[in-house]
Amino acid sequence: MHPCRHLLLATLLAACAGPAAAAWVKVAEASGSTIYLDPAVSRKVGDNIMVWLLRDHAAMRFGTGGPYWSSRDQIEIDCRARRVRRIYASDHPKPMGEGKFVASEHGPMSWNDAQPRSIMGRVVELACNVP
Prior knowledge:
- Strands 1, 2, 3, 4, 5, 6 and 7 form a seven-stranded antiparallel β-sheet that branches.
- The chain has about 130 residues and is α+β, with helices and mostly antiparallel strands.
- It has one domain: Surface-adhesin protein E (Lipocalin), CATH 2.40.128.710.
């Protein structure tokens, strides 16, 4: 990606930011969680890019590692094919991904299409800088 496109993406993401933590851009609210994107996206490798998502839950959730208030996911995005897959996930005892994780999962999951007008579709649009 051309350096000017990185600057443009960072500017657009910053403009979309609400009262969320400075490093995260609010993408959507769904199923009792607020989803954020880290605007510090990685360099593209071919048509793929890696990004971090944060899910801040409105209520405490309970998993195999114990109670948690937030979850972080590293996802790989295939910008050309508009598909995503999770590479890493962790659940955290405090909001906004704070605190030592209580559970984590590693390894690429299967690819899923990012449907238009969905949360993942919005993430692909923001991260890949596509309409």
